Amino acid sequence: MDIKELLTPDFAITWLPWAVQYFFLIGLAYTSVWIAAIAVLWPGQRQQRLLTLCGSLIFSAAIVAPVALLADLHQPLRAWHFYMQLRPDSWMWFGAWLLPVFMGSGLLFGYLLLRPSLPTTATDRWSQLGCWLRFGRWSEKPLLKPVAVLAFLSACSIALYTGMETMAVQARPLWHSHWLPPLFAASALLAGSGMLVWLNFLFKGHNTNTDRYLLLWLRAAFTLFGLLLIGW
Q: What is the number of H-type helices and E-type strands within the chain?
């Protein structure tokens, strides 16, 4: 049986471009949550530049990734069936519950990371919008650590779900391996830390200390990925 796509040629069933986009974008989202949460929770590692970059990546990737996943279902209302049936034997059923939790906690965490960078005084239309997005004169610091813990745990659940739903495909021997979920997570961490390095160059206010910190993540992710690849 072939799946007929409007934007891609016909080919036998496998992962379609929408699913590949989801894997890439959700990997960027949950690894940027990991990096930011550890920076928040680890003493002496809180750089506002790093947190701003992570918040930007969380927002952009965590919003778009579920859209790509719904597009992969071809009929978005099919997602409703996950909530109308009890299927604890299906990783996609678990994902239908875990993904909204991650979106909620991740986007809240991303907002708290970005809030200190929003303007406090309105000088033009854009700064006025930034002031409005602060939602008042309150401090985000008391909320930052508990939300970081919640978002970190939720990101771990999404990393597990994304790897396990692929590993469950027994018809693909290369996928059906317990090495695959940690391989997915390590490759996502490699992409996420690399993307943050690129954003540091792209956004105004490039910080070399942020580069050094992210390059440590990049080297660690590359080493871990290589070791897992050998095991796989």
A: 8, 2
Residues with Cβ within 8 Å of residue 184, at least 6 apart in sequence = 23, 27, 159, 162, 163, 166
| Global model pTM greater than 0.85 | no
What is the rounded CA–CA span in Å between residue 51 and residue 160? 24
Helix (H) or strand (E) run with residue 2 in it: strand 2-3
Q: How far apart are CA 144 and CA 40, in angstroms?
A: 8
Phi, psi of 178 (to 5 degrees): -70, -10
Picking from 53, 55, 77, 61, the residue whose alpha carbon sits closest to that of residue 23 is 61
How would you classify residue 117: left for phi > 0, otherwise alpha for psi between -120 and 50, otherwise beta? alpha
Note the residue count of the chain: 232
The DSSP secondary structure of 133-147, one letter per residue, reads HTTSS--SHHHHHHH
The pLDDT assigned to 163 comes to 83
* Maximum CA extent, the chain: 60
Q: What is the pLDDT of residues 133-186, one digit of tens each?
A: 667 676 777 788 899 999 999 999 999 988 888 777 766 777 777 888 889 899
Ranges of the chain whose pLDDT falls below 50 = none
Q: Which residues contact 169 (CB under 8 A, 6 or more apart)?
A: 175, 176
11 - beta bridge partners?
3
Q: What is the DSSP letter of 163?
A: H
